[in-house]
């Protein structure tokens, strides 16, 4: 009988390990901090492991905090979700085809409407700049980097834009757009930086100012998300897929311009919504400890990120609503800097040259 009981206990323990190990959410920790008097903060993204689909909109009640394996009571933790914009810049460059092919097809009014819808649907977290390219070396600025409400009035100029060169420098526009986004993000004051390039075209590259290899090299090197959308029968779908390394959209029907922009906008908004800036007050007052932040969906999906904190000198008086000054007594990484992503994967476009680059870890409740 004793042996049977022991077998049952062992079986239950093994089952618990299996269940606990079946995390369905990938929680990627991008940065964390532990600062006096007792404030712990973490910035992370959440995606579904199976599909890589972004998980956004989780309320703070869906997060739990564990310190050294023990849950921190909610009333003690006073957990909050802070505005990610306080520490993260989300910049998007939209490159639209205004060359001769687009003009001859009468697409510019539809493109203007599509871009207007894009900036409205892509979310308040994005700061968007719109550029038009034709056959010239450098695209023209249509709308300065701003929020959706500020950009929209400037976009109508697209509807009547005259090309300066009726050729199409698609390859050059892509490389230039990536470089411009790098410059914009370098000037941003936030410590975390995320970039997105959206390319819309009505034809293939005609100008031949830049080789396909140069474009491929630029796309391979950039950490930014890159989306490509194209309409019309003069599109090489394989090239469009190669350009849109994050996702590509194609429709042979020229009337699908607005729908394509809306699809890209929804994807960009979802990617931005997967970012969370979590803050809580720790009851720890000394020594180093292991923190786990666990996220759970209403349907039961879960995942977690772990990192270490040093609570030496902590005391009462923490305010979880305070935005931390990154760099003060930063938490050490839970795993090696490159362990959070598999080969060929990026962290969603994060550029953080000043951080110690802690990597996220998908975990499960013990």
Describe it:
The chain is an alpha/beta fold. The protein has two domains: 24-86 and 274-351, Immunoglobulin-like; 88-273, Rossmann fold, CATH 3.40.50.410. 28% of the residues lie in helices and 29% in strands. The chain contains nine helices and 15 strands. The chain has helices spanning 2-20, 74-77, 100-104, 108-121, 148-155, 170-187, 212-221, 237-243, 257-273; strands at residues 25-35, 39-48, 63-67, 70-71, 80-82, 88-97, 126-133, 140-146, 192-201, 225-231, 247-251, 275-281, 288-296, 302-310, 350-351. The strands form three sheets. Strands 6, 7, 8, 9, 10, 11 and 15 form a seven-stranded mixed sheet that branches. Strand 7 and strand 8 (140-146) form a beta hairpin. The longest helix is centred in the first third of the chain and has 19 residues, at 2-20. The chain is elongated.
The fourth-level CATH homologous superfamily of the largest domain is: von Willebrand factor, type A domain
Helix content: 25-40%
Biggest sheet: strands, sense, closure?
7 strands, mixed
Strand content bin:
25-35%
Domains (count): 2
Whole-Å distance between the termini?
28 Å
Instruction: Label the structural class.
Output: alpha/beta
């Amino acid at each position: 009988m004793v042996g049977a009981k022991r077998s049952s206990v062992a079986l239950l323990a093994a089952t618990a390990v299996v269940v606990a190990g079946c995390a369905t959410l990938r929680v990627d920790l991008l940065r964390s901090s532990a600062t006096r008097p007792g404030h712990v903060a973490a910035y992370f993204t959440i995606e579904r492991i199976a599909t890589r689909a972004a998980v956004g909109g989780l309320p703070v009640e869906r997060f739990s905090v564990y310190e050294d394996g023990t849950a921190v009571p909610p009333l003690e933790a006073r957990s909050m979700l802070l505005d990610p914009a306080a520490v993260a810049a989300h910049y998007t460059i939209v490159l639209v085809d205004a060359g001769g092919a687009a003009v001859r097809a009468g697409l510019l009014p539809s493109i203007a409407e599509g871009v207007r819808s894009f900036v409205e649907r892509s979310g308040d977290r994005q700061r968007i700049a719109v550029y038009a390219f034709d056959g010239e070396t450098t695209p023209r600025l249509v709308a300065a980097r701003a929020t959706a409400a500020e950009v929209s009035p400037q976009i109508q100029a697209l509807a009547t834009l005259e090309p300066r060169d009726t050729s199409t420098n698609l390859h050059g526009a892509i490389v230039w757009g990536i470089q411009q986004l790098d410059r914009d993000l370098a000037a941003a004051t936030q410590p975390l930086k995320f970039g997105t390039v959206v390319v819309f075209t009505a034809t293939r590259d005609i100008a031949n100012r830049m080789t396909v290899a140069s474009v491929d090299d630029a796309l391979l090197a950039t950490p930014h998300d890159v989306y490509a959308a194209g309409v019309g029968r003069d599109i090489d779908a394989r090239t469009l897929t190669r350009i849109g390394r994050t996702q590509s959209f194609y429709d042979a029907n020229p009337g699908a311009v607005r729908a394509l922009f809306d699809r890209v906008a929804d994807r960009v908004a979802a990617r931005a919504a997967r970012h969370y800036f979590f803050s809580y007050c720790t009851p720890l007052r000394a020594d180093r400890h292991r923190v786990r932040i666990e996220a759970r969906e209403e349907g039961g999906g879960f995942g977690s990120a772990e990192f270490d904190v040093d609570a030496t000198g902590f005391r009462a008086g923490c305010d979880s609503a305070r935005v931390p000054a990154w760099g003060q007594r930063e938490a050490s990484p839970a795993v090696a800097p490159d362990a959070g992503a598999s080969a060929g994967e990026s962290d969603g476009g994060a550029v953080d040259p000043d951080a110690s680059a802690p990597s996220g870890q998908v975990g499960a409740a013990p």
